[in-house]
Amino acid sequence: MVDVARIEGLIAPSLAAMGFAIVRVRFLGGARRATLQIMVERALPEHGVRLDDGGISADDCAEVSRTVSALLDVEDPIAGAYELEISSPGIDRPLLRPADFRRYRGFAARLETRLPIDGRRRFAGTLDETDTQHVRLIDPDGAVISVPFAAIHAAKLQLTDHLLQEVSRLRSQAQTKEEAL
Q1: Which residues fall within 8 angstroms of residue 76, CB to CB, at 6 or more apart?
Q2: pLDDT tens digits, residue range 152-176?
């Protein structure tokens, strides 16, 4: 069994020094092909909202890959051969931590739970208030759904016109700031 928390702990300080934040570390093992997936984005201010691909270019992924490879070569936390895959979270990014759900309040998301809640495992709606124990969604009919964090198997932003419009607005705003400098 690969300890992804240990791997994250090994690489996070170096990536932070490079200006990157880890979104997710996963190890997908198989007899034929094992893959260590590391999703990164540019580091954000504490209350920043990232509505793009995390500001990651192919060159950034290559730089992160070289750094992570060197760190893992020294520590060797994975027995056997594996492929290293570095990526950005994308616009319809995964939501993994309570802070992610709070940061993207007001945007549409899809959640899947490990076990059924009120007979359902899949939920969709607009992210609402989030506390340390629950995520609240407002479904398309206006009903409020409270899902315990511990029950969530997977969650991600839903690609909608609203999300795309906000991405476009923020990119235009950033471009205007760059041109002013």
Answers
A1: none
A2: 999 999 998 888 888 777 777 767 7
Q: Please list the residue range(s) of the chain that carry CATH number 3.30.300.70.
A: 4-87
**What string of H, E and C letters represents the secondary structure of 3-31?**
CHHHHHHHHHHHHHHCCEEEEEEEEECCC
Domain ranges in the chain with CATH number 2.30.30.100: 98-176
**68 DSSP 8-state letter:** H
- Hey, what CATH class is 4-87 in? alpha beta
Per-residue pLDDT tens for 23-71? 999 999 876 789 999 999 888 655 455 555 556 889 999 999 999 999 9
Sheet containing 83-87: give its strands across: 20-28, 35-42, 83-87
Residue 158: CB atoms within 10 A of its CB come to 15
Give domain 98-176's CATH architecture.
Roll (2.30)
* Helix count and strand count (H, E) for the chain: 4, 8
